[in-house]
Amino acid sequence: MGELKDKAAGLTNEAIGNTKQAVADATNDPSLDQRGKAQERKGEVQQVSGDLKGAMGDDI
Q1: Where in the numbering of this chain does the CsbD-like domain appear (predicted)?
Q2: For the chain, which terminus, N or C, has the lower number of CB atoms within 10 Å?
């Protein structure tokens, strides 16, 4: 079950990060852009974690 939670959290963080980046581009806010990129990366890591948990049967 950890696999699905990590993947869902990862997708959510990626979507929010992408939204922050789009708003930052529209408002010319470099700080928001950096926070959006960081959140997007966090989501990518969470998805990889979910993939690993799935491959290892949630044993990690």
Answers
A1: 6-56
A2: N
- Give the sign of the dihedral formed by CA 30, CA 34, CA 40, CA 41: positive
Whether residue 18 contacts residue 44, with contact meaning beta carbons closer than 8 Å, is answered with no
Mean pLDDT within 15-38? 98
Residue 31's domain comprises 2-55
Number of domains in the chain: 1
Distance between CA atoms of residues 7 and 50, nearest Å: 5
Cβ-contact 42, 13 below 8 angstroms: yes
Q: How much is the pTM? A: 0.84
pLDDT at 60 over 90: no
CA distance to 2, 10, 37, per residue, from 13 (Å): 16, 5, 10
